[in-house]
Each structure stands twice: as structure tokens, then as C-alpha cells.
Amino acid sequence: MRLPRPALIATATATAAATLLLSPHGALAEPTPQPPTRERETESASEGADRAAGAPESTADRALTSPAPDLTTDARGYPREQNLTPDPQNPADKSIKLGLTPYHAIAPKLNALQRLGDRVSVEIAGRSAGGHRLYLVTVTAPESAKQARAQERMRELIENAPQAAAKDPALKAAYKTPVFFNNNIHGNEWEGTDAALKLIERLAKAKDKDTTDLLARNRLYFNITANPDGRIAGTRANAGGFDMNRDFITASQPEVRAMRQIEIDKQPAVMLDLHGYVNGTLIEPATPPHGENYEYDLFLKNTYANALGMESAVNGLGYTPGKDGVEPVQIPFRDQEEGWDDWPPIFTPQYAAFHGTVAAHTVEIPLAVNNEEYDELPVAELRRRSAINVDVAGAAMDATLDYAQKHRASLIADQIEVFRRGATGAAQVPVSPETVPGVPGIGPEDVYTTDFPRAYVIPSGGNQRSATAAARLVDHLLANDVQVRRATKDFRLGGTSYAKGSYVIDMHQPKRGLANVMLADGRDISDKVSTMYDISGWSLGRLWGASADSVRTAGLSVPSRTVHETAGVGYVAPYGNLRLRLDDAREIAALNSLLADGVSVRQSTDGGSAIVPASARTKAAALAKKYDVAFDATKATGGTPLHRVRVAAAVTPGELFALREMNFDVAPVSTAILNAGFDWSKADVLFASAGLDHEDLTPAARTALDAFLSRKGLVGRGAVGAALNAAADLLAVKPVEGNGDANGVVRVVNSRGGITQGAPDHSFVYAPMWFTDLGSSVRVEQSYATGNPLVSGHWRPLDDGTGGPDRAAGRASVVSGPHAVLFGTEPLFRAHPKGEFPQMARALLTVSR
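The structure assignment produced for this chain is given below.
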């Protein structure tokens, strides 16, 4: 059994800050042990809404359209030098106060580093939501174009022919280990960037044999700042309001797509993701539960060993609690029971594991310099802390390079083994003292494996509810480097018949773990641990609006071909009026584009589609191509006229992004914005889920809001929406809040007709809610399924027995009335559950009439 672990110490920024008390001499008092703290608890609803309100529409436009450059197409060798145009000086850059490198100084610094010799190269890996360049720096010994092509061939061999790679003597002798340092993904956790710049400079100048050997046998990649928007503004999130270390499965933000492309193209064996602030420095591997889809024996072996090396290096700097306020290093796997898990693939290191990274770490450097510390501490103290943090980050990087150099052969062999197991369908190896020798305290609580299906099928034709959703899901799999084939004939598999054109994901492939983590239902882990750090369920197969059938069969004989992009499904009938289904976010976006252009569109009597006049065929054709949606012929008549909906939105950043993705005309609001004066004549409906408190409004703002709600209406979600509904006396319901820490994929039952028509029979919850004591005019649009509605995630009852899934079972999850719709689910959560978006869209269309 694992040795007892003390309670987690200050696991999130706000908690860490609260436990560190400044002494008269600048040292820090010993921190008080704290329970695990989730991100949502470190930010109030109003702060989240303010982040959403501050996100300009351009950030959504850029996020939806900006591609990540393919970093393998450059046929040059190394170095790949370029002269970067400097950015304008920005005296408001929040880094300056800390004595750190402001964003505008990075380009000149990189230009100078390239001039130091022939080891440093700079590429532009993309642009941020706010439009700033993302710099990828490569440090390695010079390579000719021929040598660089040879390295790429070996990288491809490792991934796509791992059995051959394992036997290739040239690869063993010549392949350079890829090591990746990802910095500053949280914008107000700055110091990884500065440690990286210092390390690059040292490596560029050093003439000693150890450095020469290091760069001859490794390629070192540095994402200098993953979040330039947040670095400049001093915010955790980017300019779109997103915490990008929660976005890796969805990849809604351009910075995340850039990091994803680095993982795919460079295929690092080792990576660090530099964060702050936990004192003492926290270095993964993590506590249970562990992601069931990675080859955890290989991951734990290397991640734990490298963590020990980083621990020695960081503690060896000589900083102490009494003198400097720096506590000794923590390794959660060894030192803690639970609360800092690596279960969800939304985090950078956990996502990296599915691309063959066998040692991947979050490193939380020690001394808080953000949030209230940034505002309240003297500049001298902030700079003292920042300097220590840079040293700590640098020590972690140095130790990682030492590990990569000493264990080069085994790291590459283990990466090959990850891909070999996937390609051959080999069984996972459960962790144990025998399979991972040298790692103490492995117990049954650490054993997580899964039963991979033989394949997934994403049907076409009559088996598929939404061809548009299916195409989007397949494109997303391909963007994540999952191999997909398309059937060239009708076929039968696992007892089901499928049409030609259906997509087949053969699970005997190198990145099977990533395919499965995206498409599988996931697991209910409520009984495994008492608390989780963040979400615990995320299934694209259940939440993205497309059917994804798991097939368990001995063989897989399907006539098919490899695809690299989906075949378009956009279509416009050649004559007559047109019917646009409203089952997908892209269909909603197309509808809103037509309405914005003044087209007279009517909603069908069943509410499930829009009727578009034949006169708009040219516009429909353009939208069919842009959004990959179908406009079928229809003879339907009647229906309700639709108009462009102007949404006043007090919402989270993810919800705001989803509304903009669907082309709604959105005006972000919050308590502060309403108190400052808001012109309600410019809104047709209020969507409220965060940052709007009726009691905190001024009398004038409250009167204006109440008047608006009495003549228009409300779409509300969660506690904020329910409270506004009660204040305005719109729907006669009793809202019941479930466990606030609960989250995951749930089974639901949709009512016929109405706003949930055509919706998936699964939804997502985070702090779930349900509704009882329904008035006579209240319609149940959707209910939680009977039995245990939780499919995957973590949802426990509260200590008194209330708040659990048994209390929600069979209860209304979405309700409506003449002037309001209330959601107890989260259909737009972090812009992730794409198949749920139309529920919210239909609610807005309905209430705004």
C-alpha cells in the first residue's frame, strides 16, 4: 500500500497566497495545510463574468479561424534564423513591475540570441487570441537540410512503424531526443519564460563538452510564452478569457492549437509545463486517479525519476523556509493522498502523454507574485520572489536536461513502446512495484487501465443524426493526429450494418489512448476519491452531437481508405424553399447569418428546423460551403417568423465564446455594467449564468432590469439564472442545487418538440441543478434519467446525503415557460459540448419572440 500522505498544501494560486504570511524580515511563515482547491473556487462569478465581458469579439473570430502552422514542412536544417520585428514598447506590461521580461522585449532578445552562434532558431508557432506572436525556439547542434530530413524520417518511424523503429540501429545512434519546455500558459505565472530565456542564452554561449554533447544528442524546444495576452495583462486567461490549461481536448483557442501542433510535429519524449505558485515547489507525478488511457507504467517510471532529479536540484539551490520563505519540494504521488490528480486530459502534461511524452510534468514554482500579492506587496519583495522563482524554474529545467541526456536510450525506447502497444493492440501494463521498480508506495489505488474497443465507427447516412456534427468530430480527431479511415463500401461490423462513407477509427493505432479518451464514455470515479482537482468527464462521443459507436469484435475487415480531411457535407437543394435543420452549432451559425442579412426565415412548427425562402438560395450556397451544412428541399409552410436575436449575456468566457461561435449578436453584461447604465433597448433576451446579482444592483439598474424581464424574458443557467428567475417571478419552480463539486457526463431524457428536440441523450453538468414543485404553466424540456444518471465523472452526495445523483434522477433538468427557460445542466461549458449548443440557441430564439 502507498505510504500515508499529508493533506495537499496550497494547491491553487489563491489558496497558496492565503497561506503565506510575510514576516518582518521578508521570510514566509510555514504554510497551513489546506484542502485541494479547484479553479472555480479561486474566482468569483463576477470576476469570471468580467473576464467574459472584457473579451472582444475579435478574439473569438481569431480563435475560430486561426490555424496552427505545420512545423514539419520546413525543409531547412538548423539553425533557422529570422529577424523578428520588434513590438511597440508597452509600459503597462505587468511583467515590468516584477523585474521580468515584458512581452515587447522578447523579440529583440530572441534576435540577439540568434546572433550568438549557430545553435538557436526561432519560428512563429501561431498567434494568440489577442494577436500576439507565439515564439517557438529550438536549441540544438547545427543540422544540414539532409540531416534534418533524416531526423524527421526517424520521428515518423517511431510513431508509425514502432516495431521497426525499435530494431533500427541508426535511429538508436542518431535520433535526437526531443525535450519541450512550455512556459507561461497561465499569463500571471510569469517566471518560466525568464528561466527559459536565461537557459537558452547559456546554451548558446557555452563551449564546454557537456553542452556540446547535450546539443548533439537532443533537440530542445521552448514555447517562450504560451499566453502573451495574459503575460501583458497580468491575467491567468488569454484575451478571450480562457484558461488554456483546461482547453486541450476542445482546442477552442489558437494558442492551444499551436501547442497541440508542437506536440504532434516535435513529438517530445520529455516536457515541463511551468506554473506557479505552490510552496514548496510542486512537481508531478500526480495523485490518484490516474488517466486510464495512457501507458501509465512507462509514464510513472520516467516522470517519477525525473521529479526526484528536479527535487534535488531545486532543494540544492539552498533556499530555506526561515531565510527565504521557500519550502522543500513536494511530489504529489509520493507526498499526498489525493486532490492533485492527472485524470482529465485537459491539462498540458496529461495531453502530451498521448503524443508519446513519457516524462511530463506540471511544475508549480513556489512564491506567489500575482493577484493580491502583485497589488499589495512592495516592488522589492515582488522582485525578490520573482528572482527566486526564476532560479527554481531554471533548476527544474537543468535537471530535466540532465535526465534526458543520461536516459536518452530508455526514453526513446519507452516512447516507441507507447506507440507499439497502440499499433499492435497490446494490453496495458498495470502499475505495481514489479512493473515500475524504484517508485515507492504504489498501491491498488494507483491502478487504472481501460478495455479498448477494437474500433469506433462514426456512421454516415441513416445511422447518423447530424452529418455536419460527424464531419466536425472527424476533423477534430484528424487535427489531433488520430488515424481515421473511410469505408469504400457498405459493411457490417459488431452486428450493425453501416453505409459506405462511414468513418472507422481502428484502435490498433499508435495514438489509441488519445482516440479513446476523446470518444469513450469515460468512467464514473465517484467512489475512487473524495475530491478532484477539475472536471472528470468530457466524452466527445456523447457530447459533440455525432454518433460514435464502440465496436468490440475480434477482427476488423472493412473496405476503406485513409482520410486526411472529411468530405464536405454542405448542400443546397436546386429548387424550391429550403430546410435548414437546427441540430448543430454550425447550423445555428448559418441561421444567424441569414437573419443578420435580413432574410425572412421561419421556424418550423416542430421547432427543429428553419424554413428558408428560395430567394435566399445564393446566400444559402455560401453558408453551406462556409459552415458545411445542408439546405434540403421542403414543401413545409407556416411556422414562426424569426429575427436576429440580440443577447445581453452575463455569462462565463466559455459561454460567451460559444454564443459568438453560433453568430449571435451578443452584448456582455454584469452587475457592474448594469450599474453603470445599460441600454436595454438593444437587447431581445437576457442570458444569465454568472456575474449578475439582483441584490447588488442599484435601484435604477434593478428597475431597468425588472422592466426588461417583464416585457422580454430570461434564459438562465445554474444558481445565478435561478436567482434572477425568482427575483423576477417568471417561472414557478423550486431550484435544487446538487453537490457543487459534481461534474461529468449525464444521461438525460428529452421531451418531444420544444428546445431539446433532436438533442443528444447525454448532457454535461458542473455543480448540477434540478427543478421541483413545478407550476402548472411550466414545461419540462428535459429530465435527468432515472437510476444513476451519471455516466462518467465525479458526483457524490453531500455529507447529509443530499445533492447526489440519486436525488437528481428523474427530476427536471431544463424547464420553460412563456418568458423564461432555466437550465440545470451546462450545455455551453467551456465551449466544449458542441452537440448541446443548439439547446441554448433554441431557448434564446424562443424567449426572444
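Interim note for the steering committee: Residues 199 and 254 are 27 Å apart (CA to CA). The two ends are 62 Å apart (CA to CA).
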